[in-house]
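[SOLVED] Need 3D model of a three-part complex

Original post:
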Amino acid sequence: MKAENILEVKDLVIEYPSGRKKFLSRERLRAVDRVSFNLPAGGSLGLAGESGSGKSTVVKAIANLLLFNNPETKIRGEILINIAGKEINLANMSRSGMKKYRKLIQIIFQDSNSSLNPRFTAGKIIEEPLLYNTKLGKNERAERVNFLMEKTGLQEDVFFRYPHELSGGQRQRVSIARALSTNPRILIADEPVSSLDVSVQGQILNLFSDIQKEFNLTLIMIAHDLSIIESVCSDVAIMYLGKIIETGRTNRVFENPAHPYTQALISSIPVPEYKSEKRERIILKGDIPSIMKKPSGCVFRSRCPKAADICSEKEPEEKEITSGHYFSCFF
Amino acid sequence: MRQWTRGLNTNNMKKKKIIKTNSLLRKRWDKFRSMKRGYYSLLALLILYVISFFLPLIIGRDALLVRYEGVYYFPVVKYYDAGTFGQKIYGEANYRLLKKEFAAAGKGNFVLMPVYPYGPNENLLDETSETPPHAPSREHILGTDDRARDVFSRLVYGYNISISFALTITLISFAAGIFIGAVLGFFGGKFDSFGQRVIEIWSTLPVLLIIMIISSIFMPNFLLLTLIMTLFGWTGITYYIRGEVYREKGKDYVLAALSTGASNTKIITSHILPNSLVPVISFAPFAIVANIVSLVSLDFLGFGLPPPTPSWGEMINQGMGNLSHWWLAVFPLGAEFLTLLAVVFIGEAVREAMDPREYGKII
Amino acid sequence: MKNKILEIKNLSTVFYAKHSGQGKETKELIPGKAVSGVSFDVYEDEVLGIVGESGSGKSVTAYSILNLIPNPPGKIVSGEIIYRGIDLLKLSSEEIRKYRGAEISMIFQEPGTSLNPVMRIEEQMCEVFMSHGKTDRAEALKKSIELLKRAGLPDAEKRIKEYPSSLSGGMQQRVMIAMALAFRPSLLIADEPTTALDVTVQAQILDLMSDIKRENGKSSIIMITHNLGIIAEMCDRVLVMYGGKIQESANVKDLFENPLHPYTSAMIKSIPCFGKKHEGRLNTIPGMVPDIFNLPPGCKFCNRCEFKKDICEKKEPELKEISKEHFVRCHLYEG
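Solution:
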């Protein structure tokens, strides 16, 4: 593990048991297939891809939340974090073993409505992690909560309000304040703004940039909207059916997308600018296949405009075009 | 470390402005209160139930206070032999007679009786001439039964027993059901499958039959009946709570709690359970109804509480046997009907108050 | 001059609810002005975009056109909706049914919840034909398959026998579009038709809608969305709604190149636009979308506006034509 990296994911494979039973054993579905990436401390990685691409599964595995609801999930590969020079593998870490490291990795969910306990006031929600991770007294905790609320741009009176009395933007701020309260090193945000109004999204994205600097965080952000990743993240990884098909510095990948899928994704984004001539777009055929019916060879070949015979025969190797910019395609 | 001292102390904040806020519970309570029928039914049943614990002070055969030759006695809390007051009968003193005797003697001795001076198990044959049952009269407002016991008194004491029985069973079996259901739902997997099968087998045992068998071997009493009913009453709740816990467990706020380092116990008790109890709470009044009815049925069939316990089922049974004496059937049935109706009203209001749609968004 | 096919005059729709926003809850039901005094026209052969955030009244306007507002809690309190000379709001529920689906049809945000989950696609589509026309079942089935093919559903003959749940979101939306097009409506109202879909599928659906419009000739589309990108790609003319009112209306070129209302220009600046370099932070609009139960008396945007003047709080500005077909509701352009 390189010293400057805080997180290294190596050949991560995640399999769920499927509903279908084979003789004596269950069929397994591979939701994430040999995913690897490195993240330097203070960096920010955007994970993009359509629904079913496995991006949420990857981040839940990093935060060690998969086994809680699906105890039969199999995780292989390594999720290494670097804590004070020590290397720790979080993949398959036990519940009790994980306890020490939970506070280092915090996650913010997409739906601010369901990610806050409806019976707790905002103040209590932000305070709760302090009870588990610090030995602060009551007044110190209140001070800390107020500090966090100030940092996340929450008014004082939000302290006593319940989630259903807050707007979507305020709820997402409460989620962020809660995540910050444990002093994490890595902050994961799973589609943090997609449920918010357009005029509020910008505020929350700016808040992410601010806290990332101020709290010296490493950020992993999932977004299906590439323009959000472009504006917040320094690195990007594009996923399709459980694989990373292209990754690199955000500006390099978005300026010179190498993989046909990335090209199609970029071309599909509606651009809020007037053009007298309608631009030519790459429109993919069909839907993302179900994970149960993954195409052989290259996973993207069933929708790829460039698909050739070789694509169904074997899987493309990862190729580097410029330094740090990798993609997996024969062409 | 970072400077944590900025910001305000919450105590000051509380003082500075009074911030009105509505917890979900508070909102539901307000909604419940706005459902007048249910709210007043709850008030009525509760007040009556509380009063029913102090019944001997209002309805009963024992005097509240006796002054006899300068000494004060409190027969309502203590047993006095008839001889203590110079009565020439066996056993406990008859305070109604004593009152008449004292009044006739006029020596400054007096007896203070409860407002309605007849006990539920007291045989009034000595004081009446005709054969029982007696029709309602000024003295016995709902008449007497075939053993010359006061129907009103029995009815009122029976209320306490009915409600206590139903409440105890509901509370204990809900507590057990919630605990077991929550554990099954939370841990899931093979443990859950195994637990569910055990519960299914357990719940197929015929409860009434078992009670009848046990009642014919042992003398049933309040405790034994409660125990048996609880033993078989908890299974239904586990299904509800298990499903709810399972559903809540998948929600993001639980994962958020997990990721901030909450323990299993903490996740169950302060996150999942409070949010899973809604269907169970809406269900509770109807469980109470069912339990009231089951005690009445058991008593009616004669497998319930032993005589002479004042129970509604036993009274209804007597009414069946004495159909020509209408008051024996009408009053207990009426009382049961009103009680059940009130509980159903409460249930209806609770269900309405718990209805999540109220807080949904329109368009 | 193009022909008007739909004319909306002074439409106001309210929703009654116990207000439970910030702080205390009211005892009585109070009206929330979801749409107030909205007037606009739809011309033949155009795509009209209505853009706005939650609570802006864009969807309520669309539902009001076909009188689909659930009552209670909602109610259309005033206005006229004149479709080819007939006020749709004056029609009985029996009469308006002839228009719904046939003359004006609608597609919704969640294709999954708009289809009946326990009926095969086949039955649902044939029902559409049989309810409006005098077609028999075989004829209806043939037409349905034809429509599904036009809507780009692969294996239409096979898919039509399936239940909605076995189709993906994109395919479900294609089915919805096929059903909406069954009678070649002159007006198609699309309420956030691609919000629930992935970007690549969104591109397919938008492409399909453009194709169909081209083929159908003189039909019009009202496209309701919060996504300015979709507006830029699809629409000819745009209404910007905020706080239940039209704040700006212009053709798409003027709107993006010369936005007049502070809200419009702030929106255009604040959304991260792909391919444009951002210098550090994004521009943002402070504050949040107003609650329809608690709208400011003056300009609805004044609390968040950087050009706010004293008058903005007190008096609501009028919608005023600044240049040809470019209307704006703002005090900056008054007097």
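Edit: Residues 198-214 of chain A form the longest helix (17 residues).
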